[in-house]
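Protein data sheet
==================
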Amino acid sequence: MNHTGRTIITINGSTYTVKFGMGALLHFSEGLGYDVQETIEALTKTGVGQIKAIAKFIYAALYVDALYHDKEFTLELVDIIDWVDTNPTDEIGKVVVVIMQGISAITKVEYPSGDAGESKKK
């Protein structure tokens, strides 16, 4: 179940669902040669780099969603950048909230200790 939220955006007259997903995060990370921690840092560090990272993440999220739903994907990164440039900050803010909620959910996960699953018997 996806607890991270989603939002709808319109690009070139078509609507797309943007949601935070591990598929998009991994695709984004691998495509840029980042590890997941570096990706999280790129998405959360304020500045021009963050804006570029968000645009690339949106592209990856839409691409992965199209693959998942077996749909043709015709957008290019420049379409996402144009969308960011031409939309009011509250529209972009909705997408940023979805991404940040997803990152927050990942970073709050409690992982089992290193000895998890080992027998306690001696």
The chain has five helices and two strands. Helices lie at 22-32, 36-44, 48-68, 77-86, 89-107. Residues 10 and 63 are 15 Å apart (CA to CA). Residues 6-104 form one domain.
